[in-house]
Design goal:
The protein has 93 residues and is mainly α. It has one domain. The chain is 35% helix and 0% strand. It has 4 helices and no strands. It is globular, with a radius of gyration of 13 Å. Bound molecules: iron/sulfur cluster. The site of iron/sulfur cluster has 13 residues, from helix 2.
Length: 93
């Protein structure tokens, strides 16, 4: 069984370390990261890889996959910020 998710961070992903500094603002990024899951309408209607990578078990989609014993096959963890705090700080303007 396959779940509808992105497998690796897309280009220009706001959760990635090479994203534009000050892009989304502290408030918006805090809100996005606090959400249980995230679908990025800019690129795709699939569950976002970056949000799952940065939030791990705090992402409901990751928890669901674990519960069902489904491997999400996520790659690119090295591309996203090491912590939500670092990501928020990067987006603050
Ligand atoms: S779907 Fe996720 S990984 Fe892809 S660009 Fe959007 S936020 Fe980034």
């Amino acid at each position: 069984m396959k779940l509808p998710n992105v497998k690796k961070p897309c280009k220009d992903c706001p959760f990635c370390k090479d994203s534009l500094k000050g892009w989304l603002g502290e408030g918006r990024m805090t809100e996005i990261l606090a959400a249980d899951s995230f679908v990025c309408h800019k690129k795709t209607d699939l569950q976002c890889a970056g949000h799952m990578l940065i939030n791990g078990d705090h992402n409901g989609f990751v928890r669901l996959a674990n519960k069902l014993g489904i491997e999400l096959q996520l790659t690119g963890k090295e591309l996203v910020f090491e912590s939500t705090a670092a990501c928020i700080e990067h987006h603050a303007n």
